[in-house]
Amino acid sequence: MPVNATSAAAPSPWVFAGFPASSWTFALRVWLAMMLALYASFWLELESPSSAALTVAILALPTRGQGVEKAGYRLLATAIGVVASIAIAGVFSQTDGLLLAVLGIWVGLCVYVAAMLDGNRAYAAALCCITVALIAIQQIDTPLQVFPTGIARGAAIGIGVLAVALVNEVLAAPDYHPVLAGRIEVLHDRVKALAQETERDSASAAASLLHDIAAVRPEIASLATESSTGTARSEAARSALVDLVSAFSLGRMFAALPATSAASPHTAGLIAISRSWLRAEISRKNAQVRSSLDALHEGKRPYHAWRAPLYRSRRISAETGARAAISFALIGLLFVLTGWPTTELCLSLVAVILGLGSTAPAPRTFTMVTVMAMPIACALAGILKYFVFNGVSEFQLLAIGLAPVVIGFALLISLPNPLLSSLGRLTLVFTIAVLAPTNPQSYDPEVFLVTSFLACLSSLLVLAAQMLLPPLSGDQRVRLLLREARGELGHLDHWQVRDLAPEEAAFREAARIEQILTANGASALNGDIAAKAMRCFDQAESLRRCGTELQRLTQGPLARVVQDARDALAQRNGAAILAAAEAIRQVASRNNLFANSAIAVLVPASTVFAPSQSPTAPSQGKQS
């Protein structure tokens, strides 16, 4: 394809030290917001000004909508965590061992909820655990200080949120909807390319495409906070994703049609009907995606506000929560048995790491990144405190000294590499936490060394607990997810999942495949696993689409042959499904009825449920 002259002549983005201008402006906004939050906290004489700076580091996101959405969840989760801290400390403060057990249960419950959610909602659930850790656990020996500590933390977080919002507004932080629209358009092009293929693409490529579509879902919610038209844009983006999955599944059905050259005359006629109808339906779905994308650009509501349901395994979430609770209880028991003094900080950081790890695809990998980030953060905090600041208390020097660290890690956060981005964010957060800027600044070396030692120890203890009680491996997660997919497929007699429309149910299946692909982190996807996942997806989609189309023909002369088609689908018998499609065609022709839509979906279903394609034998179709 020739290169467009206009695009070839477009100037390349300005790059300095390997980072584009957008990364530098983002890093500058983070530093300015952090300094504003610290200055306001010092001026208001808040008890925990470092919480304001930490809020800025946590809300360091490149676009305005993302930061505002996460800020809202941070405020909500902090309020819930403060209330929980007061309740736990008030009821169990005199019970010692029972208090640790209750705190462990709270950690497990928060991790379970976080594992059932995605995006910033999962972060909010984890933050409920973190807030209790930083308030109730650190004040475990002084329960009367829980309430004032919670109020002080809430005030500091509010200052941090306001600082981020003000800097983003003054410096015109970019909106996210153009970036999101561009990503969806690229996905749309990939789906259209699939529909133009004459043969079915590889299972790995198809699963990867579904993964990329479903992975956009958590980012849609941030559009609602960008502007007055944000809610409409969020609905438009959600509808575009759901229709993309629908167009994808139709393309898979089209590609599954057998070649007419090797078919009998009757079968060739059925294939021609199916091919014509599917081609028109794919074109209609692509037009709906284009309409939703136009609505996203213009800030208008889409033609239909689809839901994009999330799939989460309750068993995996429950096991993740139980392991987190047991790990916290074991580490707490270790401190009780050893009798170490001043271990509240270490125990609270253990809960923080467990909570944040629950939002990562691989908790142990997150813990290993934390193990790397913690000593780097402690070393940087020590260099800043005893070599850069070295006893000074002027705010101007604090701002200048923090500039290289904050801007440098903000640049790392802006990188597309998830490992480096995560390492940059964690190191920035831990550096501010260990440095703990106050007014006046404390320079007690003994306190700093103890704090640094306990901070590093906390990450090592979590890693040791995860080795002793390892979280579910990627292979175990994949097996559980595939088992659940087969179980639902075996009981899919009504061709629906709860109260979801077929398009919404298809997106839910795509979300499950996204979970399967992310279970092993960045490792390459096993082709056999991808094939099994896509077979389950294709069969579930065929059952739902056949059920929807057959439901429209249950009355009148077609009632009997429609019931035969349903029986064939229930038996997962490809030959019987094809025969039922031919029977429907003949009866419809004799009675001058239109049944092409039902025939069109039954023909590819007969191929999808062929014995070589079925994940279980036809006689075991309902086996879970």
Strand order of the largest sheet: 1-2
- The parts where pLDDT drops under 50 for at least 5 residues are 1-10, 614-624
Can you summarize the main beta sheet?
2 strands, antiparallel
Gross morphology:
elongated
What is the CA-based Rg, rounded? 28 Å
- Based on helices, strands and strand pairing, what is the structural class? mainly alpha
Total DSSP E strands: 2
Instruction: Report the end-to-end length measured between terminal Cα atoms.
Output: 49 Å
Mean pLDDT score:
86
Number of helices: 24
Q: Please indicate the percent range of residues in DSSP E strands (runs of 2 or more).
A: under 5%
Structure description:
The chain is mainly alpha-helical. The protein folds into two domains: 14-175 and 312-468, no CATH class; 177-298, Up-down Bundle (Four Helix Bundle (Hemerythrin (Met), subunit A)), CATH 1.20.120. It has helices spanning 5-9, 21-44, 49-58, 64-92, 97-116, 119-137, 146-170, 177-195, 203-214, 217-220, 230-256, 265-298, 314-338, 344-357, 363-389, 395-413, 418-435, 445-468, 474-490, 502-518, 527-551, 559-571, 574-590, 596-608, and strands spanning 15-16, 19-20. The chain has a two-stranded antiparallel sheet with strand order 1-2. α9 (203-214) crosses α20 and α11 runs antiparallel to α12. It is elongated. The two termini are 49 Å apart. Residues 1-10 and 614-624 have low confidence and may be disordered.
